[in-house]
Each structure stands twice: as C-alpha cells, then as structure tokens.
Known about the structure:
This protein has helices at residues 5-17, 33-46, 65-73, 83-91, 108-117, 126-135, 178-188, 206-227, 254-264, 281-284, 316-320, 420-423, 442-448, 456-459, and strands spanning 27-32, 53-58, 77-80, 99-102, 120-123, 144-149, 171-172, 192-196, 234-236, 274-277, 288-300, 303-308, 329-332, 344-349, 358-365, 373-376, 397-403, 426-428, 431-437.
Amino acid sequence: MSFSTDKVARAVRQAVTDGLLAEDRPVAGLLDVGGVRESVSALRGAFAGVPEVLHAFAAKACPLVPVLRLLADAGLGCEVASPGELRLALDAGFAPERIVLDSPAKTRGEIREALALGVALNADNLGELDRIDALRPEHCSSVLGLRVNPQVGGGSIGAMSTATAQSKFGVALRDPGARERVVEAFVRRPWLTRLHAHVGSQGCPLPLIAEGLAALHGLAEEIDARAGRRQVTSLDLGGGLPVNFADDSVTPTYAAYVAALTAVEPALLDGRYGVVTEFGRSLLAKNGVTVARVEYVKEAGGRRIALTHAGAQVATRTVFMPASWPLRVSAYGPDGTPKQGPLTPYDIAGPLCFAGDVVAHAHPLPELAEGDLVVLHDTGAYYFSAPWAYNSLPRPAVYGCLFEEDGEDGREVGEEEGEESARDGRRGAGVLFATVRAAQSAREISLENGADRADALLAGFAARPRG
C-alpha cells in the first residue's frame, strides 16, 4: 500500500542500471504495481460487509490507459468526468455499466453518448435532469442519479472542499426550497434511482465526510417515504480519503473511513442501498515516485539551489500551493544509491522559466552535485500522470515496477505474448519494469502545437462561398 523507502531505492538503482534514468532521460515516474494491487485489496476488504458495492476509480487521478487496465483487472470500475476520460476508460477495458460519468458541465452530446452506451450518469443539477428527460431513450440501461451538496463545510484546503455553502457542485440542499425540489424531482422521475455526494478530498477530515454522507442517506430515506416505494436504490459516496504525505505510513485507512461512516450513520452501509465509491488519490499516490536528475547546483543569497528536471510541469499543485501539498524529497547518487552525509538545506527547483518553480524550500538533504538524482515521494496520483505543458517540456516517461517478492506472475505489467510492453520489460535485482508511457519527443510536442499546420495563418484561410 506504500512504495516503501527500501523498494524505492531498489527501483531507482535498477532504473539507472537499465538506462531508464540518464542524462538524456532526466525525469521519470515509477509506479509500484504490487503496491497498487495491495491498495485495491485494502479498499475491497474494508467494504467486504457491504452486499452491493462498485469501487469506481477516479480516472483524473491517473489517466494512463495501462494503469486503468491494471485497475480494471483488479476488479474496479471507473469514474470519469469528461469525454476524454470516458474514451480512456473504454479503451482500458472497463465495461460501460461499470463506468460512472460525473461532470458539472455535460453537453447534450455527452449525455446522449453516455445514455446510448449504458454508462451510469450523475446529473449535477436540476436543469441537467430536464436535459435527460428530453434525451433519455425509451429503453435505457444507464443508472441515473443526481448529485447534491450537503453543505456541511470545508476542510483545510478550500480548493478541495466541495460541500461548502457556495460550492459549484451539485444541488445545494440547505438553500431555501432546494431539498423539496430535489424530492419532487425524484418523485416525478421513477427512473431516477441514485443519489450522489462528494464532500471533498485532501484536507477534509473523516468526521466531515461522514456528516455529509449521513445527510445523503437521510435524503434517500425521505425520497423513498414520499414516493411510497423504494426509489433510491444506490448511493454514490464519492471519494476523498486524504493521503498522508509526511512519511511512508498509510493513514487514514479505508477501514477507518468505513468506521467513521458507520459511527455517524449505522444504516449507511447496512445493505439497503447499493454503494458506489470514487477513490483516486488514496489508491495510487503512495505507490508512485518521480525521479529527476540534478543538472546544476548553485548558491543565491546564502541558499543552496539544486536545479532539477522536476518542477511545476509534474508537481503543479506543490509548486503553487506548497503549504497544502508538501512533498518528501530524498537524494540519490548518479548510480542510483541513496546519498549519505551531513544535511544541508536546499531549494529543489525545477526547469521552468518562472521564479516560483520550486518543489521544496530549504529541504535538508545530503550534499548534492551534478548528476545526482532527487526523488519526489507519493506522486503516484495527479503528478507525473497529468503534466503541465508550460515551456513545452516533454511529458515524462512512466514505468511500472514489479518486485519479485510481490509474486512470480508479472502478467499485469506486460508479459502476455504479443503485447508491446513485454518487449521493453527489463528484469534485474528482483525488479521488472514495463513502459506505461514513453517520454514525449520534441517532434511530438511540435505536432501537438500545430506543426502540420505551420502555414495556417499565412495561407490557410478559405474564402466563404458566395450565394
């Protein structure tokens, strides 16, 4: 459930030996495949007492098709929030009925596609229900729900708190008349059978999450009583389990999450309602690291600065909100072995052309030099998988790691016959690597930015037809 310090050291050393990290390959993401499977097992174990549950991985946390395929193979569903994420989920092999579409701004075309495929859909507002009324085919297999905002307040990171009074998500239940309108919307639509809420993620304490989901349960009971039938058949609880970025320990656990929910509302998980979860960060964050080469070391104003190849392009939130998203950093030599020695404060800076591109300030590390490596821990979600294209820097390569003690069967990282990833697998010192995403080339960057239309503004304007 966590990419331990020992495993990280083994993976970094072998990645250097295999040439995955080098002068011309200065940054890469590493994902512990066995750790991901352990995290999935912990999630499923915590909910073992719930008769009907779909754990839908939040694709936004790591929108890489091989990672999504791994999670599908582990028995998860997928939560998506855009046409692109829906395409990724389908390409990864998730069955449409195990996909949940959430988005606050779905177009009619997106709704129509989801209904045609049989993808579950949570409407964000009452206006969206009106669209579904008009678009829903006579025979529709999609499970349809409505997202509500229980307005229980926010956590320590405002941007990650989605149940505040003015949150953009869902129907605000405590606004005057809103609760009654929600109940009436369900009574008028027998096909509307799911309620959805997401209180928030990083920075939101478990008691706050539990309070919001208990309110969801109470609303479901009220709707069923008013309808005179069991109309609400499932509750989508969202995700949001916070991640500990301070050390290797996994806390809070999924078991603690379940305990917090049942302490506030014992009937929430008693089986009357089917359950959907949408965890993302908590499944992957602690199973991934970002490794970057130190290009230069310098001093300015009495502070040592290590200029590396991991900045805001792979750690955007940390750079812009360092107090909310601090990362642990460790140092390795050019051969991939951990560095030892007296500690010195370093600013770990990235390659982007703005002064704030610093991922760690005054971080104590052994003496660094050109060619050394720095490791950013707990970056398996929302970091190397969702790079920022500032300065047209290439998207980094991402590799899956499988350790021999995690099992003999390495099938999940590409050893099936005929798979492309099998041909670039490398085994050594008990570590197997498979390429999840190759590093982006300069040519690919250029094409992405219109190289095949270079003359568009000089000779690319078509005359309007007359008549």
